[in-house]
Structures are given as structure tokens and as C-alpha cells.
Write a structure and sequence with these properties.
Subcellular location: Cytoplasm
Radius of gyration: 17 Å
Number of domains: 2
Strand content: 15-25%
Strand order of the largest sheet: 2-3-1-4-8
Number of strands: 8
Order of helices and strands: EHEHHHEHEHEEEHHEH
Number of helices: 9
Distance between the termini: 14 Å
CATH architecture of the largest domain: 3-Layer(aba) Sandwich
Family: Belongs to the adenylate kinase family.
Shape: globular
CATH topology of the largest domain: Rossmann fold
GO biological process, one term: AMP salvage
Largest sheet: 5 strands, parallel
GO molecular function: AMP kinase activity; ATP binding; zinc ion binding
Bound molecules: adenosine-5'-diphosphate, adenosine monophosphate
Pathway: Purine metabolism; AMP biosynthesis via salvage pathway; AMP from ADP: step 1/1
Structural class: alpha/beta
Length: 215
């Protein structure tokens, strides 16, 4: 089984590119952010514990994240490839993932690192919304549905905005990224993993072609 990591700051386009990779190549995406939001929406114990933490842009305990990852891997043991989105987010999480994969005699083949300038990240996050039915990601500045108010993918007419996509929380999320998440790249480098830098400032399809060319 292949294991790929899609890496980058909040708003760099990880979710957008992951969905395209999933559709075209049939690899399965595990987005810890999506899993946590699903728990919150379902009102589960995990969701209740995490809702405020996520809304503030902070990180829930690793025990919760690791449980979600292990459940996902157990359910998807038949997958030909897994793409990790939003995980690992700390060096501790990266150590955990490498240990878990080593135990399973597997490894990370590629880390796709999407680079985007900070001022663009803020605009992308503040403009983000998604289809409430299928989760397709849109942006009021960069990618609106072709018919206003109607999802291009499933035709639904209701959309949602993430609880953490507001100005105050974005500052915390950027700080968490710089302090806790960016060091994961050095950790991967020290372990000689294959890290590929992609220019995430380009339009969605151009970014996708860059990724396809390296996979
Ligand atoms: P992440 O998962 O890294 O937080 P998303 O994939 O949700 O990022 O993208 C953040 C926002 O930026 C979304 O509103 C999305 O539509 C938009 N976006 C993603 N990639 C691009 C791009 N290459 N150019 C312009 N806007 C983009
Ligand atoms: P994302 O969808 O990746 O932008 O994640 C949204 C929020 O979910 C983050 O700001 C965190 O609060 C939480 N989250 C997602 N993935 C993780 C993770 N691997 N570790 C800790 N918190 C996470």
C-alpha cells in the first residue's frame, strides 16, 4: 500500500487537491480535520470534547487524533494508497505515523509540500465555503459554483462555512502551523523522505498537474 502525505499551511489547497487525487486515482484520503468536523456534526463524545478547541484553532489531544487514524487504517486495509491530509501536524504525530507504518512494514513514499504566500492564504481561508451535502470546496474570490447557489458536483443548494474560518482563529491557526507543524518538514527531511515542493500559488488545475507529474 502506498502512503502519501499532503502538507502545507491552512488554506494552501490540500483538501482541494486531495479530492482530485481521490477521484482520479482512487487513493483514499484521510483528513483528520474532516473526521473531527464529522464528530462535531454528529454530536459524539469526541465531537463535544473537540468543538471549542477546533473553533479556536488549537489542537485536540493526540489520543483522539491517533484513535481516528487507527480506525481509518483498519477500515481501509484494502486501499491501494492512502493520502494523509492535515496529519501529521506535529513532530510527535509524525513520529507516531512512522512507527505505526514501520510496524506494518510500510512507509511514506512521498510528501507533497504545497507552498503558498501568507497573504494569499488569508484570502483563501476567508473566502472558503463548501457544499453542505457533498463537501465540494468553493471560494468566493477564486472558485464560485458555475450557477450561483448550486453545487457543481451534486446540485445541492445549501452551503456551509467552517467555524474556524474567521479572522481571529486564522491568526492562531497560522501560528500553530509555524510553531508546531512546519517543523514536521525538517523531521521528514532528517529521515530522508522524498519531499516534493509544489507551487500552490497557481490555479487549481495547474497545481494538480504539478502533483500528477511527480507521482
Ligand atoms: P486546505 O485544505 O489546505 O486548508 P483548501 O483546499 O480547503 O485548503 O483550500 C482553501 C481555499 O482556497 C478554498 O476556498 C479553495 O477553493 C481555495 N483554493 C484551493 N486551491 C486554490 C488555488 N490553487 N487557487 C485559488 N484558490 C484555491
Ligand atoms: P484542517 O481541516 O486540516 O484545516 O483542520 C481543522 C482543525 O482541526 C485544526 O485547526 C485543528 O483544530 C484540528 N485538527 C485537524 N487535524 C489535526 C491533527 N492532525 N492534529 C491536531 N488537530 C487537528
Amino acid at each position: 500500500m502506498k502512503h502519501l502525505v499532503i502538507f502545507g499551511a491552512p488554506g494552501s489547497g490540500k483538501g482541494t487537491q486531495s479530492k482530485k487525487l481521490e477521484e482520479k486515482y482512487g487513493i483514499r484520503v484521510v483528513s483528520t480535520g474532516d473526521l473531527l468536523r464529522a464528530e462535531v456534526a454528529a454530536g459524539s463524545e469526541i465531537g463535544k470534547t473537540c468543538a471549542d478547541i477546533i473553533a479556536q484553532g488549537k489542537f485536540p489531544d493526540n489520543a483522539i487524533i491517533f484513535k481516528l487514524i487507527e480506525l481509518f487504517l483498519d477500515k481501509n486495509s484494502d486501499a491501494k494508497g492512502i493520502l494523509y491530509d492535515g496529519f501529521p501536524r506535529t513532530v510527535e504525530q509524525a513520529e507516531y505515523l512512522l512507527t505505526l507504518l514501520t510496524q506494518r512494514r510500510e512507509m511514506i513514499q512521498t510528501v507533497i509540500n504545497i507552498g503558498v504566500d501568507e497573504d494569499v492564504l488569508i484570502k483563501r481561508i476567508s473566502g472558503r465555503f463548501a457544499c453542505a451535502e457533498c463537501g465540494e470546496i468553493y471560494n468566493k474570490y477564486f472558485k464560485t459554483p458555475s450557477t450561483e447557489g448550486v453545487c457543481d458536483v451534486c446540485g445541492a443548494e445549501n452551503f456551509k462555512v467552517r467555524s474556524d474560518d474567521n479572522e481571529e482563529t486564522v491568526k492562531t491557526r497560522m501560528m500553530m502551523y509555524e510553531e508546531a507543524t512546519a517543523p514536521v518538514l525538517d523531521f521528514f527531511r532528517d529521515r530522508d523522505l522524498n519531499i516534493i515542493l509544489v507551487d500552490g500559488m497557481q490555479p487549481v488545475d495547474v497545481v494538480f498537474h504539478q502533483i500528477e507529474n511527480i507521482l
